[in-house]
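During the no-cost extension, the postdoctoral fellow (Dr. R.K.) reprocessed legacy sequence entries with the updated structure-token encoder. One reprocessed record is reproduced below for audit purposes.
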Amino acid sequence: MYLDHGRWLTAWLMRRMADRHDAADLVQDTFARLCARAPSLEALDEPRAYLTVVAKRLLINRYQRQALEQAYIRSLREAPASHAPSAEERALVLETLLELDRMLDGLAPKVRRAFLLSQLDGLGYTQIAQLLQVSVRTVTRYMSDAYAQCLRLMICAEQ
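Re-encoded structure tokens follow.
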């Protein structure tokens, strides 16, 4: 499949990204994701459509991760010098944020946002419901889904 569609996917991603090396990395990530998840790649009726969906999701994740990193860097710049974390603490926080991002990969955007609003911003379910324009019950379900995803991944990592 890589030989048949790798060049096409690279060109497709290069039209959407500024750096060809980043596009090549994303092509590799896309095929790695396919090999890990798809039971039989040959059975796909529309392999390019499937590749496009996977690549788009990975591209979105990359942009979200970059936005998260930039927000963290901005918050560090705005913090008083006396509260500035050491280089090691910054690296640990960034690593934790990226791991959290990976754990939430695959969740619906509203579920992910609800979880982050709760865990990072400290908002209550009522506040989150108002921001997302959903019921508190829906926020409770979102949080349950996010916790279940994190738990599944932690259990898989231990095995």
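The chain is about 75% helix and 0% strand. Residues 9 and 52 are 8 Å apart (CA to CA). The remaining legacy entries will be reprocessed before the final report is submitted.
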